[in-house]
Write a structure and sequence with these properties.
75% of the residues lie in helices and 0% in strands. It is elongated, with a radius of gyration of 17 Å.
């Protein structure tokens, strides 16, 4: 679970630097997408290499992050107006999460091509 550990560190550093509105609960917002990706990894590895699969994984991670924001607001017992802040970021988060799948797919395809050509990992 190296990715999730990295996300946790990013959450702690963000909290220490004053990033976010929810204090220590801001760490949950960074951990949730990592948990989703860690849990989905065995399923994604079995799929053929197609961009839509990575797009759906990115969308799931974005849903986890956005859901965490709504849960934190609910846990704090905030008034109804406060739900507008996570709602304003809902569509951009989901679109960015979906589009990240294309970037991931192209990055992996390029890395695999370079490995096969012997340009990465000390090939001759």
């Amino acid at each position: 679970m190296g990715r999730n550990g990295c996300r946790s560190v990013m959450g702690v550093i963000g909290f220490l630097q004053g990033d976010g509105r929810f204090g220590i609960l801001e760490i949950l917002k960074n951990v949730a997408p990592g948990v989703v990706i860690d849990l989905a990894e065995p399923w994604v590895r079995r799929l053929p290499g197609w961009a839509l699969g990575y797009c759906l994984l990115g969308l799931a991670a974005a849903v986890a992050r956005t859901t965490t924001e709504f849960v934190v607001v609910a846990m704090l017992g905030s008034r109804a107006e406060i739900y507008l802040f996570p709602m304003a970021k809902l569509v951009p988060n989901l679109v960015a999460g979906f589009l990240s799948g294309f970037t991931t797919f192209l990055s992996f395809a390029r890395s695999i091509a370079l490995c096969r050509a012997g340009r990465i990992l000390g090939g001759s």
